[in-house]
TrEMBL record:
TauD/TfdA-like domain boundaries: 31-313
Source species taxonomy: Bacteria, Bacillati, Actinomycetota, Actinomycetes, Kitasatosporales
Region ranges (Disordered): 1-30
Annotated organism of origin: Streptomyces shenzhenensis
Entry's Gene Ontology BP terms: antibiotic biosynthetic process
Tagged with keyword rRNA processing: no
Cofactor requirements of the protein: Fe(2+)
Domain of life assignment: Bacteria
Keywords assigned: Antibiotic biosynthesis, Iron, Oxidoreductase
InterPro entries per record: AlphaKG_dependent_hydroxylases (IPR050411), TauD-like_sf (IPR042098), TauD/TfdA-like (IPR003819)
Keyword rRNA-binding belongs to the record: no
Protein name: TauD/TfdA-like domain-containing protein
């Protein structure tokens, strides 16, 4: 589907502290409106990295799925999830299960996979009572704002994600790999450059080395693209980290991140990353019926703590091969 050549230009509001915002009159048939204006909406995402559409007004998962299909076409099936989601229809999910009082810090969705979503789509059906924004930050600006020595080390070495799968916390094998069959999990790991070890109790531990800085596949601009801070032990609330270390041991955390050479990342570095993100964060409180489109490579996103009920649906689209985005030949050889 393409936009009508007679469709009026979009009047997008811009402010330094929030994502670009488009107000529209309720169109009645939201999927048809989305299909008609698809190209114009996507052009705004390409220009700004994100776009919040207010007034489109899908109210059910079925309507959200139809709008997302109109905007993005085929939706991706999530693999290697770090937290459980509810599946509403193929490619349409709930937001990740995560404690409401804990933030989900800035990150790029599935940046540790070999095929990453180029586009993230969010829709709010029930806004929270307070907080809970899906905030965004420009990854090119984040890279420029980080200390040069730190960004150059990560660009040179990459980052290492370690995971421990169990039945008590985080995503299960079935939720992450789509199967509990050990042979199938092993085949997936070998095909996706994931080192794996089965523990005596039958649990799985994995390690995967990925690039921390990539070039945008369309603009060629260098972006800070990873989940180094979000999936690091020092981003966890102190009481949560202490419990997990006591329960599973320092090397048995459900997820953790290291420098590419395997050495630990200090608490001060994680704090510096999160502080840099916060300086560049743009946020807008959710309203029912809002749609947020995010260029997943150019723009990081977060989920802030909230109170009350919150229902935000998520889809991923436009898969990009990470090897096509790495900034140097050395990185693509990993």
């Amino acid at each position: 589907m393409t936009s009508s050549p007679l469709a009026p230009p979009l009047d997008v509001e811009q402010a330094p502290d929030r994502p670009p915002l488009l107000h529209i009159d309720t169109p009645g048939d939201a999927p048809s409106w989305a299909a008609e204006h698809r190209d114009a909406l996507r052009a705004q995402v390409a220009e700004h990295g994100a776009l919040l559409v207010r007034g489109l007004g899908p109210r059910t998962p079925e309507q959200v799925g139809a709008v997302f299909a109109a905007l993005a076409g085929g939706l991706m099936t999530e693999r290697e999830a770090f937290a459980p989601r509810e599946t509403y229809s193929p490619g349409l999910y709930s937001s990740s299960t995560w404690p409401a009082n804990q933030p989900m810090c800035m990150h790029h969705e599935l940046s540790y996979t070999l095929e990453v979503p180029g586009l993230m789509l969010f829709a709010c059906l029930i806004p929270p009572g307070d907080g809970g924004a899906t905030a965004v930050a420009d990854a090119e600006q984040v890279l420029q704002a980080l200390p040069k020595a730190l960004s150059e080390r990560f660009e040179r070495e990459g980052w290492l994600l370690t995971r421990s799968y169990n039945d008590e916390i985080g995503a299960s094998l079935a939720e992450s790999f789509g199967t509990e069959d050990h042979a199938a999990v092993e085949r997936y790991c070998r095909a996706h450059a994931i080192d794996f070890t089965w523990q005596p109790d039958g649990s799985l531990r994995t390690r995967q080395l990925r690039s921390a800085v990539v070039r945008h596949p369309v603009t060629g601009r260098r972006c800070w693209f990873n989940q180094i801070a979000f999936l690091n032990e020092w981003t966890l609330a102190p009481e949560v980290r202490e419990y997990l270390v006591d329960e599973y041991g320092a090397d048995g955390l459900p997820f953790n991140t290291c420098y590419g050479d395997g050495s630990p990342i200090g608490e001060d570095v994680v704090a510096q990353l999160n502080t840099t993100y916060e300086r560049l964060t743009r946020r807008e409180p959710w309203q029912a019926g809002d749609i947020l489109l995010v260029d997943n490579i150019r723009t990081a996103h977060s989920r802030e703590p909230y109170t009350g009920e919150r229902q935000v649906l998520v889809s991923m689209a436009e898969p990009r091969r990470l090897a096509d985005c790495v900034p140097t030949p050395e990185a693509s050889a990993r």
